[in-house]
Amino acid sequence: MTRSVLRHGFLFGLIVPLVLLGGWIDPVQAQSATCTVAFVLDGDTLNCRNGERIRLLLVDSPERGPFGRLARNALAALLPSGSEIRLELDEQPRDRRERLLAYVFLADGRMVNEMLVRQGYAFLKPSVVNRRYGARLRAAESIAREQRLGVWTR
């Protein structure tokens, strides 16, 4: 998938509904892609080897200070360079900075977004548009708060 195809919504706005009407694929598969991790920028952003920048959906991690470093290191440990990951998109595929917004899944099926929130390295960042896993991430944040993990130790 190229950036221009996603940016202009052509794939999701025209082709996907036609395919779905025919019953050929399910909507989640239609909004999935893969990525080979090049490097992690911070606790909620990474780059793929194809140059695509990925922003983890519904999470926000501290950018600076000790928790910022911990969040970045946690994401880098989960997604070392060369890792193959699956990206699942929601309703709005890009943010204002043109980053691809995605739920990130490891090969074993675990969701990275959820893991970071559950371990206290990131907060839930609700969205009005992208909500598919909102309840799941809210539950993960509740666990981190109750156990006083990471950013919730204060």
Which key terms come to mind for this protein?
154 residues, alpha+beta, OB fold (Dihydrolipoamide Acetyltransferase, E2P), 5-stranded mixed beta barrel, two-stranded antiparallel sheet, 6 helices, 7 strands, 22% strand, globular
Describe this entry's structure for a reader.
By secondary structure, this protein is α+β, with helices and mostly antiparallel strands. It has one domain (31-149): OB fold (Dihydrolipoamide Acetyltransferase, E2P) (Beta Barrel). It is 36% helix and 22% strand. The protein is built from six helices and seven strands, in the order αααββββαββαβα. It has helices at 3-7, 10-21, 27-30, 65-78, 112-118, 134-146, and strands at 32-42, 45-48, 53-56, 59-60, 84-88, 100-105, 123-124. A five-stranded mixed β-barrel has the order 1-2-3-6-5. Strands 4-7 form a two-stranded antiparallel sheet. The radius of gyration is 16 Å and the shape is globular. The termini are far apart.
